[in-house]
Design brief:
- The chain is an alpha+beta fold.
- It has one domain: Peroxisomal Thiolase, Chain A, domain 1 (3-Layer(aba) Sandwich), CATH 3.40.47.
- The strands form 4 sheets. The protein has a 9-stranded mixed sheet with strand order 5-4-6-7-1-8-13-12-11, with helices on both faces.
- The chain is globular.
- Bound molecules: acetyl coenzyme *A (ACO).
- It catalyses: acetoacetyl-CoA + acetyl-CoA + H2O = (3S)-3-hydroxy-3-methylglutaryl-CoA + CoA + H(+).
- Keywords: Acyltransferase, Lipid biosynthesis, Lipid metabolism, Steroid biosynthesis, Steroid metabolism, Sterol biosynthesis, Sterol metabolism, Transferase.
């Protein structure tokens, strides 16, 4: 199959959010800590009527309807999520309700889990299936769905929630450059969820930042190496039009792009100008470990990379800044932001993606954007996702209500035998919501 990739996308995020500015005041943090320090504007969150299953149901139904896809045309459904609702029954099986109704139970695939990387694993599974001899001609469907919540403390403002659904097949407008891929996987305790009684992770914030940047360096080196071997020329940031990063919070994305510039400098690529060489020169003697600790290096690279960041990275930061970390959906929500902002000029361009999941697993890969017919044109994808209206029609809640909601959710996590308020007044039409968890832990949903 040729040009296998993403044919269509839909994104859903909860309509409730808190302002990071208000969170700073509420938490007694210094002014600017969350907005400038972390680079975040708002944070979306699920209330007791929403969870990863309801968000997944909403995203999938909306994608099928808006692109006119018959549920019978789906041959593989893969879910990426790190929000565990059941240790055995996959989230995918909940989504099967949509397909069973139409008589389609012939759908392969289950869930992929490793922190924020599960969505990428799910996407690769679908792409590989379409490229394989077991492909039966139908579409693959990937769902990344997560609710990111943290215990009170410095990590709490880096929460968020969303689901992204992506239709996979050949002749796609968002085509994989499958040959160029660099991965880095290793054993780390930077962010993990060993306490099965709590939804909150155990997180070593500083370590997670370093692990992320180390994985980025390693993946970029391998990506460049593969490119150079196959294309016979150097790869540098000048060779991609956009870079899209997994976005736990925007500041890390700014640091990451600076790091790529430093990597280009160390590899002595031809696109680095003399002024940059001069400014980064003093840092070339740092050991690798020292380079992750150096504040001066961080500042210098961020400053030097700023014009390129504005052109190649900033267009992909809108939704992550407005919604927060969406774990598996973060990278694809960032990509959705790029489509939203640049759909009319993307054809022919290369987009480099960096996926990171703590623990840790990471891959850098790339897309080549192609011109396709309706309904799979970029213009239509942007129209369907309707990001501007979705952001505009949200409801702001004060931090006190957010904290109250978190307390209720702590209580409800893993619980049985309760009915929710069924209050769907703030949900937009077509949104699924949780109505009940019965005495056998069975979950029930309704659609607004
Ligand atoms: N104005 C402007 N900037 C400020 C202010 C202020 N008033 N106060 C602090 N800052 C800056 C700091 O200088 C720092 O920026 P820097 O990194 O450029 O130096 C930034 O705000 C964060 O402040 P810190 O004190 O360094 O960190 P904090 O203790 O608040 O924790 C962290 C931040 C580690 C990101 C925490 O929120 C966390 O653990 N989050 C979850 C883990 C995470 O997302 N890791 C990323 C990869 S793993 C994953 O995807 C889950």
């Amino acid at each position: 199959q040729k040009n296998v990739g993403i044919l269509a996308m839909e994104i859903y995020f909860p309509s409730l959010f808190v302002q990071q500015e208000a969170m700073e005041v509420h938490d007694g943090a210094s002014k600017g800590k969350y907005t400038i320090g972390l680079g975040q504007d708002c944070m979306a969150f699920c209330t007791e009527v929403e969870d990863v299953i309801s968000m997944g149901l909403t995203a999938v139904t909306s994608l099928l309807t808006k692109y006119g896809i018959d549920p019978k045309q789906i041959g593989r459904l893969e879910v990426g999520s790190e929000t565990v609702i059941d240790k055995s029954k996959s989230t995918k099986t909940f989504l099967m309700q949509i397909f069973e109704e139409c008589g389609n139970t012939d759908i392969e695939g289950v869930d992929s889990t490793n922190a924020c990387y599960g969505g990428t694993a799910a996407l690769f599974n679908c792409v590989n299936w379409v490229e394989s001899s077991s492909w039966d001609g139908r579409y693959g469907l990937v769902v990344c769905t997560d609710s990111a919540v943290y215990a009170e403390g410095p990590a709490r403002p880096t929460g968020g929630a969303a689901a992204v659904a992506m239709l996979v097949g050949p002749d796609a407008p968002i085509a994989f450059e499958s040959k160029f891929r660099g991965s880095h996987m290793s054993h780390a305790y930077d962010f993990y969820k060993p306490n099965l009684a709590s939804e909150y992770p155990v997180v070593d914030g500083k370590l997670s930042q370093t692990c992320y940047l180390m994985a980025l360096d390693s993946c970029y080196k391998r990506y460049c190496h593969k490119y150079e071997r196959l294309e016979g020329k150097q790869f540098s940031i000048a060779d991609a039009d956009y870079f899209v990063f997994h976005s736990p919070y925007n500041k890390l994305v700014q640091k990451s792009f600076g790091r790529l510039l430093f990597s280009d400098f160390l590899r002595n690529v031809s696109s680095i100008d003399e002024a940059t060489k001069e400014k980064l020169g003093p840092f070339s003697t740092l050991t690798v470990d020292e380079s992750y600790q150096s504040r001066d290096l961080e500042k210098a690279t961020q400053q030097l990379a700023k014009p390129l960041y504005d052109a190649k990275v900033q267009p992909a930061t809108l939704i992550p800044k407005q919604v927060g970390n969406m774990y598996t959906a973060s990278l694809y929500a960032a990509f959705a932001s790029l489509i939203h902002n640049k759909h009319s000029t993307l054809v022919g361009q290369r987009v480099v993606m960096f996926s990171y999941g703590s623990g840790l697993t990471a891959t850098m890969f790339s897309f080549r954007i192609r011109d396709c017919e309706h309904p799979f044109s970029l213009k239509n994808i942007a129209t369907v996702m309707n990001v501007a209206d979705k952001l505009k029609s949200r409801h702001e809640f004060p931090p006190e209500n957010f904290v109250e909601t978190m307390k209720l959710m702590e209580h409800r996590y893993g619980a049985k035998d309760f009915v929710t308020s069924k209050d769907c007044s703030l949900l937009s039409p077509g949104t699924y919501y949780l109505t009940e968890v019965d005495s056998m832990y069975r979950r029930f949903y309704a659609k607004k």
